[in-house]
Amino acid sequence: MTALSDAAVARTAAADAGDVLLALRTSFGDAPGLAARGDSGAQATIAAVLARLRPGDAVLSEEAVDDPARLRAERVWIVDPLDGTKEYALGRADWAVHVALWQRGELTDGVVALPAEGVVLATDDVPPALPPVADPPRFAVSRSRASDLVLGVVEELGGVTVPMGSAGVKVAAVVRGEVDAYVHSGGQYEWDSAAPVAVARAAGLHTSRVDGSPLLYNRPDPSLPDLVVCRPELADAVLAAVARRAGAAGTSRTS
């Protein structure tokens, strides 16, 4: 039997978790506790897949106790079993499953699954070349709490906002050409962005912190509070606008 590649393992874990999440939502609808059932069910599913197929690897997951041994490991899976719990519980489609692999300092493989849409985006199968940047440029933003910094950048660049749910969905929208940029300044963790950033990089998109510095993973503190994912031809303008807005008013701490 041919051994599965790391990308295939990520696909399997994300797809199996997506199936569990869809089945739970069918069974329980909008009943109280659906979000908690989804988080725990997807976590258990991904953990079982990784334990079976990559038993020697470390794991960092939003829904599991952090094991400091990961800091000494050469291979670490960074997982968000259900990104967009609120959207999931509301019966919306804009939630995701994230599975990424970090190896020796770099993200090497990643999958963002959008189970409610039947879509899987992966580092080994990126979308074809994107069309030109829209005029005006489109920015993915939070449905309810886009920060003043982000809204200021959009205004300065003459862009338009496109509200949507989870971080994974927002990055996926850039990868799929549905929007041109996603700027976030309100607090996230490594599991929120690892898989989306891996896929975005594979698609040739710009990825960085809002100050232009690299996004680094498998750190002692998994907080990774801000990011920019955008079309490369927009990167200089977006980062310059962020710098001007942050310098004038201070970076907002709400997403």
From TrEMBL:
It holds the Pfam family Inositol_P. The keyword NADP does not apply. Its cofactor is Mg(2+). Mg(2+) binds at residues 62, 80, 82-83, 192. The keyword Zinc does not apply. One of its GO terms (molecular function) is 3'(2'),5'-bisphosphate nucleotidase activity. InterPro entries: CysQ/Inositol_MonoPase, Inositol_monophosphatase-like. Keywords: Magnesium, Metal-binding. This is 3'(2'),5'-bisphosphate nucleotidase. It comes from Motilibacter rhizosphaerae.
